[in-house]
Amino acid sequence: MTPTELLDTSVRPPVELTSCGYVLIGHDGLVARTNAEFRRLVDREQHELIGTATLESLLSTGGRRYAETHLRPMLQLDGWVREVELDLVRPDRTEVSVLFNADTMTGEGPAFRVVVVEARERHRDEHGLEQV
């Protein structure tokens, strides 16, 4: 892509170019939109996610429980959550640690906007500090 094409949102929306995972969740709880980084993190194609997967179905067992008991209530009460560490689960059952951020959305569109940032480097650094 040329620099001009990178800036042209008609060629590729800016959300597709971000280095963080982005996903919109509909009022029915199903994934409504994802970007390339989110698909890379969960190692799934667009058709495997849109209208078929829930965010909870992409989380580890502990993450699903935490989402049900804490995240959803916090989103309903406060309208947002920030920097919650969760594990996304890939089809091969490997887990990818992420920092999870979400906001509720108003109107007829999606219910939640979610942004995740991979935390692999953070874990490696923390483990290195524990060894010192």
Topology of this structure?
Layout (H helix, E strand, L loop, with lengths): L2 H5 L13 E5 L5 E4 L1 H7 L3 H4 L11 H18 L1 E10 L5 E10 L7 E7 L1 H12 L1
Antiparallel strand pairs: 1-2, 1-5, 3-4, 4-5
Give a written overview of the molecule.
The protein is an alpha+beta fold. Helix content is 35%, strand content 27%. It has 5 helices and 5 strands. The chain has helices at residues 3-7, 36-42, 46-49, 61-78, 120-131; strands at 21-25, 31-34, 80-89, 95-104, 112-118. It has a 5-stranded antiparallel beta sheet with strand order 2-1-5-4-3. Strand 3 and strand 4 form a beta hairpin. The N and C termini lie far apart (44 Å). The mean pLDDT is 86.
